[in-house]
Amino acid sequence: MAAPNVVTADTATESSFARTPAIRWVRQNLFSNWFNTAVTLALAYMILKGLYSFASWAVFNAVWTVEGTDTRPCREMSGVGACWAVIGEKHRFILFGIYPFDEQWRPLLAIFLFLGLYVVSAMRAFWNRWLAVIWAVGLTLIGALMWGGVFGLTYIENERWGGLPLTLILATFGIALAFPLSIFLALGRRSNLPAIRALSIVYIELIRGVPLITLLIMASVMFPLFLPEGVSIDKLLRAQVAIILFSAAYLAEVVRGGLQAIPKGQFEAADSLGLSYWQKTAKIILPQALQLVIPPLVNTFIGLFKDTSLVLIIGLFDLLTSAKGALLEPAWLGFGVEVYFFVSVIYFAFCFAMSRYSQNLEVELATGHKH
Amino acid sequence: MPPAHSTAKAANRPMIEMRDLNKWYGDFHVLKDINFTVGSGQKVVICGPSGSGKSTLIRCVNRLEEHQQGQLIVDGIELTNDIKNIEAIRREVGMVFQQFNLFPHLTVLENLTLAPIWVRKVPKKEAEEAAMHFLNRVHIPEQALKFPGQLSGGQQQRVAIARSLCMKPNIMLFDEPTSALDPEMIKEVLDVMIELANEGMTMVCVTHEMGFARTVADSIVFMDKGEIVESAPPTEFFAKPKSERTRLFLSQILGH
């Protein structure tokens, strides 16, 4: 709302600049009296000083390149300037792990395919049967690129996969499979059938009650002990399954929260129209329940994305593990801050994109029925 | 033009039959030995003080509430625990709720076509034509593409009536359809209900709108404490109620 006491004929002599809403806001909120003015100036000084210190470390005093592995220029600037040379030197190891150097265009392409799939999935115009086809094609291509063995690509066993593609694989399959599983668990926990309800409760409480690390270790160490001699299940697959099962238990409770928020009248209206249980659930209840829990759902998705880094415990080379690995070379020892900053930016980009997208989705899906 | 019902001829065929119906909520005996019959094309108004079991009674008809004793036959099908029977009855029985219970995430048109498409397997285009026909009948075709949250209470309730009609039910149940409405919107909903009654629909209506009961009802049922105290045609019911409890109730709701 305009503040009429500020913009009146009396102040019309002031420059139009001073009457813009931004200037008015600044005056009213930051410089309204001497105390506010003092606080504003003090905080502005601290913020600018902090920014300047960071900029001089990250930009002005930074070492961008070095000759080979001669890191002396970096070490001379230690604590004063960042050594971005380590990223220039090691970024391929960080991004792709121990995937064969000459073949690293393949995981790079896989990353772009994943990004393409995310973008397509985010567009509501594609929310139909075609999306399943697009994903099937996309994942097949990613599989072909990563493994090879077809189209003249050399075969790369998945023990050599690493870095960002591995993180994306774990997170994407984790979310894509844990989410539907969690919906069934949440519905099961509210089922009228005692056996299904009991199973769902036991599953959720049992899995949610242990740390992900224990599940990963059990999947990698204990599980093979129960398999017959000679049968082995891929380590990556076992970790993936552990992540899916773990996340599903968490997500199930989020979904159940949404189900409980749906008024009884919605169930009754659907029943009275003769809809079957699954029709009612799919058409009436879930669309509303899931929309309600978008914030905590995305919260859990973001948590899952970062929790994939726990696979380092069983020796898989995800993005964070590769980053640690890059620091093991003696020449580059001690440049952890730069490397961790680099991977943090990558993690942040994905998580922030999820967050922003979900906020847009909330607005788009709102149909003005908030009470 | 889709006829909403096709049974007006067999006027005396019972559409709803309750025989010695009993229901408890835990220890609370909410329906006591209910014997109640609604013939085809009949309009019955149920009234009574709150907590008398009148809503529970009509909610038993489409199994939103389960009865524990006695027999309940709807349109020739006995209600048992068999989900097939329950779903068959629900397809034939429309229900309008006090709180409208429209689906807020769907447009008005989608609210109307959802059940015909998924339950009756009507092709989408046909379902939409029927939906527009019924929206015309409740006088709000221009709201078809809006969401329920954008409509007034009276409009929402008329959409809810149209939604039920789209399933071409043989029986319509109304559970206090005007109780949640602002006074100025009650008439528009009652008008739609009167039109529906004049077309011969079998209707059971829980309401305190005694003016509506007087014009439309073939019989008025008065319930108190889980029992049917009295059942009579409107003229008789208002002029010379037999029981003291009915007289007291009428004096309370007609007194002001």
Main sheet of chain B, how many strands, which sense, barrel? 6 strands, mixed
What number is the mean pLDDT of chain A?
85
Order of helices and strands of chain B: EEEHEEHEHHHEHEHEEHH
How much helicity do the residues of chain B have? Answer: 25-40%
Mean model confidence by pLDDT of chain B? 90
Outline the structure in words.
- The complex is a heterodimer of chains A (371) and B (256).
- Among the domains of chain A are: 101-155; 162-333, MetI-like (MetI-like fold, Orthogonal Bundle), CATH 1.10.3720.10.
- Helix content of chain A is 68%, strand content 1%.
- Chain A has helices at 21-30, 34-60, 72-76, 85-96, 105-122, 129-147, 163-189, 194-208, 212-226, 235-260, 264-272, 277-292, 294-307, 319-326, 336-365; one strand at 317-318.
- The two termini of chain A are 24 Å apart.
- The model of chain A is unreliable at 1-13 (pLDDT under 50).
- The termini of chain B are far apart.
- Chain B has a 6-stranded mixed beta sheet, sandwiched between helices. A 4-stranded antiparallel beta sheet of chain B has the order 2-1-4-5, covered by helices on one side.
- Chain B has 256 residues and is an alpha/beta fold.
- Chain B is built from 9 helices and 10 strands.
- Chain B is globular.
- Helices cover 38% and strands 25% of the residues of chain B.
- In chain B, a hairpin with a 2-residue loop joins strand 9 (219-224) and strand 10 (227-232).
- Residues 1-10 of chain B have low confidence and may be disordered.
- Chains A and B meet through helix 11 and helix 12 of A and helix 2, strand 6 and helix 3 of B.
